[in-house]
Amino acid sequence: xxxxxMGSKSDLHIMQDAADILKExxxxxxxxxxxxxxxxxxxxxxARSAAxxxxxxxxxxxxxxxxxxxxxxxxxxxxxxxxxxxxxxxxDGWDSILxxxxxxxxxxxxxxxxxxxxxxxxxxxxxxSIADDxxxxxxxxxxxxxxKKVEENPI
Length: 155
Ligand code: RP5
Description:
Elements (H helix, E strand, L loop, with lengths): L1 E5 L5 H13 L4 E5 L6 H10 L7 E7 L4 H8 L4 E6 L8 H8 L8 E2 L5 H13 L3 H19 L4
The structure holds 5-O-phosphono-beta-D-ribofuranose (RP5).
Pathway: Purine metabolism; IMP biosynthesis via de novo pathway; 5-amino-1-(5-phospho-D-ribosyl)imidazole-4-carboxylate from 5-amino-1-(5-phospho-D-ribosyl)imidazole (N5-CAIR route): step 2/2
Keywords: Isomerase, Lyase, Purine biosynthesis
Catalytic activity: 5-carboxyamino-1-(5-phospho-D-ribosyl)imidazole + H(+) = 5-amino-1-(5-phospho-D-ribosyl)imidazole-4-carboxylate
């Protein structure tokens, strides 16, 4: 249901958070390394075939000149959620954030916060829950846990 892709295996320690929350919410996903710059043909094929392979949402994470989410969004009508990854030689992550966030009119990428792959997973599940009442219930339970954690730890 959800295709999680990243520009490099070095992004996995961040992007794993998306996979973990999707697993917790019982949403099927796949994980792949697809680089906009190093494997552009693979990126093209992945994006063009994603919908017909049954994917409903794509989560794409990359760092630096992070063109992967935007390029994938240009090649598919599926919603693309972008995760800016703070890579080791990045300028505090601003390179990744702005590369993913500042898309031109007509080609949106739903950009989450720096390294916020967990939020990308939750957002993907919320998109899918529009057509899945059981997933709505699991998301409601997840949010209830967030509420309880706050209420059970007063100042
Ligand atoms: C980007 O360059 C990747 O998404 C990664 O965040 C960054 C560094 O990649 P590696 O040099 O570690 O493969 O393309």
